Predict the structure.
Amino acid sequence: MKTKIFLLMTTIIAAGAVSARAQANPYGEFTASDDLGAPKLAGSAAYDAADQAYTITGAGSNMWYTSDQCHYVWKKLKGDFILRTRLEFVGAGVVAHRKAGWLVRPSLDPGAPYVDSAEHGGGLTSLQFRRFQGTNTEQITLAITNADVLQLERKGNTWIFSAAHYGSPFVSAQLPDLALGDEVFAGLFVCSHDANVLEKAIFHDVRVVRPVKAGFVPYRDYIGSVLEILDVHAGKLEQVYSSAQPFEAPNWTRDGRSLIYNVSGRAEGWGRLTRFDLTAKTPTLLDTTPANRNNNDHVLSFDGTMLGLSDQSPDHGGQSCIFTVPVQGGTARRITPLTPSYLHGWSPDGKLLVFTGSRTNKFDIYQIPADGSGAEVRLTDSPGVNDGPEYTPDGKYIYFNSSRTGKMQIWRMKPDGRDQEQITDDEDNNWFPHISPDGQWLVIISYPPDIHPAEHPYYQQCYLRLLPVVGGRPKVIAYLYGGQGTINVPSWSPDSRRIAFVSNTDMAE
């Protein structure tokens, strides 16, 4: 089933844009910094707001047996959460068992029960835990060494530790039945494993994610959004804006100065296209009258002068219909007479639009003149769902995703629909191929195998992956909680170095 319709909310979340990091807080995301267990040497922590990175120095004889010593940067959390970071040790280190990672415990008592996800200086990657006050620590070793991406997820009393070498999928282990109480201390730690030594680690891409709560109803309930920008080649990730008011699907304008995304939950509860100034970090609504119920399928023309959008206003039955409008806003012109139609691409010469449409309860890819002067032409007619079409900058191919072979995979075809060939073939469900402006790279969003191939739902753990446009093994470039609305639209910067995307977290508390 196509899951693009942005339904009316039963409750409107109050909008409130906030900075991605509180600049005045010396500990960034966290509340405080403490030495746990009175180590001989005092540790320290510093947050670099410009780099969005934490540097933690810690001593401590161990995090083991019946008591712990380390330096700990923490905040209090309730309920379920996902903690993620990319870390690096500084220097060669003195003891191979120096360790750093995530630590969760009900109190700051050194003998308290706890769970941590730790990377050791010698390469050991393990989930360590103490079940009860003052008892010995236990350990689950992951089938990976020298990991630099660590994630610890809480689901009730179940703890899931996932680790990866940046660029590769997660390797995971699960610990059931460890009750630490609803409210816990959660944060980052460093332990030198030698009372007379201080060790240092730097933590990048720190994310504290609050997933949807129990009873969440898809397409009725929504949580907050975070706008992120990633340098796909350097791996540098930056949060630039966040809001409890959900927004989705950023396009990068051709001058590189702004992003255009759709915001939901206005008075009528539907989406509106918004321009976000990357320098001022401020959003401004675009006028697309009469098409002012926009979903997350909107695309800029290659020359940057026109904006195509998909709209679900009542005058076309609330079904998605394609319009075009000048990029600065204005009166929108209807292009597709038939619905539902979801826009995904302009041809490089600006003469054609390529989109996904359902005409016989089946989603296929269609093409139509961008000025609305001609009839639509069907380009795919295969089993399964065909979606996400986008032209290459040279106009020689249309890339798209299709579930015709079982899993959702990336395909390409000639602009007239000939020579359809599969590009990816793996266990993930791969959606929305976006081609870099230089024509060299594809960015895709990859859902795990347990997601139905025909669906791309909100609020899932998924990957953004990069691969050469001609195919090859995809490389993970972002680990995130998101999905629908993350990269539904072309989101590359004009210099082919960066992508903009949306991740999600519950900001209600």
Notes: The CA atoms of residues 290 and 315 lie 9 Å apart. The radius of gyration is 24 Å. Residues 1-22 have pLDDT under 50 and may be disordered.
